[in-house]
Amino acid sequence: MAESQVSSKWVVIVTLAVVVGAFLGGSGYAEYRAGRTHALTTEIANNESPSIMHLAAARAELRDLQRLLTTHVLQASTGRTTPVQQLKEVRDRLRDHLQSYFALPALPKERELWSRIELELTDVDVLAGRIVEATASGRQAAAQQLLVDELPDAIDDEADAIIAAITLNAQHVREVAQAIEGERRTRTLWVVALDGVSVALAVALAMLALRTIARQESLRRRRLEELEGFAGRVAHDLLNPISAAEMSLTAAERVAATPAGAERRVAILDRARRSLARARRLIDDLLAFAQAGARPDRRAASTVAEVVDGVIEELRPVAQARQIVIDVEQSPELPPVRCASGVLTSLLSNLVRNAIKHMGERPRRHIRVRALPRNDRVRFEVEDSGPGLSPDLLPEAFDPYVRGSGTREPGLGLGLATVRRLVDGHDGRYGVASRLGEGALFWFELPVAGRGAGAGTGAPSASAKPLTTATTTAAERTGT
To answer: Which of 64, 208, 409, 449 could crosslink 301 through cysteines, CB 3.0-4.6 Å?
Structure first.
């Protein structure tokens, strides 16, 4: 579960980073495209628009110059005074507008138009000067001839050159406008796409968070249900033997003080002691299960042979009382394992007691305990000739409160759960191999003291029969 929580945390962090990255990327790309659009609009504002404005003004001054020259010649022909100051001002304004236009950055092919405009403007200036000079010297016929025959063509040529320049700039404005529209569409598409990615990832992150919350809530509810069930089972299983002992003691108090009553009192008290012993065994199971959740001492080490011999010495009389034979196979000079002696004793005791308890009425009554090296681990096996486990019970054999159907032995089904909790806490592996009616082989592996946890083989020993198996490690139970 810890590994799953770590994985979920990294998924959340990476997803959040991608969301932020997509948001920042979209904002940055939008700014980049906005910068390009600004550059294009700036080009129109600072180049094409002023060019068109100066060219249009120059064309208007050109037509005004033609009008003033016509008026000048007509007035001179009637003998009226013809001042030339206004003509000079128009010619200066025309020249100023064109010079302002020439000062702007040139478009491709625009310099050719500049040369044409300058050349045609020179022709207009020359004709205007000749007309003014002719009228000033009294040569009205020559002035009229220049005004009618040559000036219109020069004005039209200059006007055509100016219109060509206006057309070129207007065409470029259209191209820039299309580029601006393209930039706008591209920016919109990219921003929408990146925003869509951000929204999708945000939704995924929210769903992941909700799923994680739901999973944690489900786990919390399941733990509460397990705790409620645990309390109910404890109350029920402890109430029966304690009530029986209480009733026996009450009955013993009422027995008359006679020889027959004394004998009956002994039987009643013996029954009470058995009830209390059964309650004591249940309490021991609960205590072992609770202690299995404690944090193990990583520096602890246990001598395998010493613990195995002690467990067998303690349990052999119990087995013999049920006519069960216990054999031990140990490899010589097994290395110490990385756990406290009490932990290893609890592990072996639970498995051997489990085998003794569930031997049933089998005609062949035999238990074999093995301790074998497995790379950088030591493997412990407890194989019995009992009734075995059904295939549907194998995957949950090490879960709390799981008990075989039809068993009449007392207990809460916490012995194998204690094994699971202790092995998980010591980086070990555990499993069971069984076939219904042919016995069972429970095993666990612990790392050798002073070394890291290895992979382990996970296979039954060579002497084990080919049975249905269920193997579990601490990592597998957390989903890694």
So the answer is: 449
